[in-house]
Write a structure and sequence with these properties.
Number of strands: 2
Structural class: mainly alpha
Largest sheet: 2 strands, antiparallel
Strand content: under 5%
Strand order of the largest sheet: 1-2
Order of helices and strands: HHHHHHEHHHHHHEHHH
Helix content: over 70%
Distance between the termini: 25 Å
Radius of gyration: 21 Å
Shape: globular
Number of helices: 15
Oligomer: single chain
């Protein structure tokens, strides 16, 4: 009788600490936000507004996918927003200024992001500079290069209208008439599937988790920690490059002054989705749910005419609560 009384609470506690339960709670929070905002304003749950939320989630979600890998290693990347901008600018330079084909411009954007991430990884792993400082420096470097390369002027894609269809067209609408989903949203979900496969089925994903769980033990196991950590940051940079391409296509221009603040939304999405800032655990599904929570919250507060400064207060409070909940959960374990 005593054994049964002891085991039952233990199972209950482990249930509430499980990753599945945390994702379920995050999803329940997202549904609750949708219901609350729908009741508060008839303009929220409309087709145009839902599409707007999806589009807003596309860019932040892709950035958050890359940030997930970094945070799982117990690192941080503050440069994802400005690296996204630099990637968009390089895409504009190749397509508009140089007049090269669109695929080469897309490749240039992805390569720019991956190279910036590679530099982050090398700075952190080889020079032993803390991730916070290294990526903060890259954030400023990318911001400055974006302004220098573009001469502080937007680069427009007016001569290549096909490029905008990469984000704002609807391949799904052609397949299923009347069901118009922007291509940017499709890219987000495809990127999420690829990220989930990398995290769950590849050596890079397994080593990322191992690095976050216990880096020294991983090193003593014979793993080249520096190389794999560099690869993780390069992968995060590639996702930033993809976000830059999608952002440029959505706006039909590369805006060199854009990007500041995006890193905070990306990190918030990752944390709200259940990835621990202490490293060692996290899921792509949780990150996507977190990205939708951030976009839905921002959109709903904007529709209710809540001032932007209060929107930031609410978002910041939610992030603090999510981090505190993670601390409590890990302390319980």
């Amino acid at each position: 009788m005593t054994v049964e009384t002891t085991v039952a609470p233990s199972r209950t506690r482990s249930l509430f600490r499980s990753d599945a339960t945390q994702k379920l709670l995050a999803f329940a929070g997202l549904i609750a936000l949708v219901v609350i905002f729908s009741l508060a304003s008839p303009n929220f749950f409309t087709f145009d507004n839902i599409v707007g939320i999806l589009l807003a989630t596309a860019v932040n979600g892709i950035l958050a996918l890359g940030a997930t890998f970094v945070i799982i290693t117990a690192g941080i990347d503050l440069s994802v927003g400005t690296v996204m901008t630099l990637s968009a600018v390089m895409t504009g330079v190749v397509i508009t200024n140089w007049g090269l084909p669109i695929p080469l411009g897309i490749l240039a954007g992805l390569a720019t992001g991956a190279f910036a991430g590679l530099l982050n990884g090398l700075t952190i792993s080889k020079m032993k500079i803390p991730p916070f400082i290294a990526t903060l420096g890259m954030m400023m470097v990318a911001k400055g290069l974006s302004l220098v390369i573009s001469q502080a002027k937007p680069i427009y894609f007016n001569d290549t209208p096909v490029f905008r269809q990469l984000a704002m067209g609807s391949l799904v609408g052609r397949i299923i008439p009347g069901f118009t989903v922007p291509n940017a949203v499709v890219v987000l979900f495809l990127a999420a599937i690829i990220a989930a496969i990398i995290l769950g089925k590849t050596i890079l994903g397994r080593y990322a988790v191992a690095l976050g769980s216990n880096e020294e033990a991983t090193r003593l196991s014979g793993v080249n920690v520096d190389s794999w950590k560099t690869a993780v940051y390069a992968l995060a940079g590639a996702f930033s490059g993809l976000a830059g391409v999608i952002m440029a296509a959505r706006l039909n221009s590369a805006q060199p002054a854009l990007g500041a603040g995006y890193e905070l939304d990306a990190i918030a999405a990752v944390v709200i989705g259940g990835t621990s800032l202490s490293g060692g655990e996290g899921t792509i599904l949780g990150t996507i749910i977190g990205a939708f929570i951030i976009s839905t919250l921002t959109n709903g507060l904007r529709i209710l005419s809540v001032p932007q400064e209060w929107q930031m207060v609410v978002t910041g409070a939610i992030v603090i609560f999510a981090v505190y909940a993670d601390i409590i959960r890990r302390r319980g374990k």
